């Protein structure tokens, strides 16, 4: 990793890389895994069959995803019953029984269009490192780009939706560029979606204290929701540096048991 970073700019550094097991997709292979080499580099999350050596290798990765548009989720830790119950109820560990097998340290990365990659590592310490590395890489990427804009629509109108690290949420007309509404991250009080294209964002008006609902439609709703999560987490972490440490589920429970 140090050798790779010597040849990369400050904005394209490798945060972490290493071997994992990826679960094969499909109902016919529920327990089959294959070796994959993952890397967090610059603005992207890479999946390889073999470790990258040359610049061409990075370009020819099996899969490449924008870090701001993915979501890291821990699915299972090898804990005693009491600790598992506590982690499951209070820390949001995702125990998906349709994915359950005998492997103890599992995580997934949710990517665009509702798809995900399901991985396993051999030790709890590895899981903790991947968790920390993803959060750090995403935090750095959000700070680096500052803002991200998605095209969207509502009631036949072509709109743009911008996430800005300093400003918050902004929606404007795609043609006239006129701002239709703007809210700070702290004003977002809830959201819901149809799992396909449409999302409802609930904002609190600072003057009236009333909740305002804004509905939008996106071609890739998952990527947008993941990006919202990335920006809000980065914003909270910038105000409270201890926030990221408090979110490390794997490290907290792996090293304490």
TrEMBL record:
- GO MF assignments: structural molecule activity
Q: Give the UniProt entry's GO cellular component terms.
A: cytoplasm; dystrophin-associated glycoprotein complex
Enumerate the UniProt keywords alphabetically.
Cytoplasm
Q: Does the keyword Isomerase apply?
A: no
Q: Which domain of life is it from?
A: Eukaryota
Where is this protein localized, as stated in its record? Answer: Cytoplasm
Write down what this protein is called: Syntrophin C-terminal PH domain-containing protein
For whether the record's keyword set contains Cytoplasm, the answer is: yes
Instruction: Please state every residue range assigned to the domain named Syntrophin C-terminal PH.
Output: 147-238
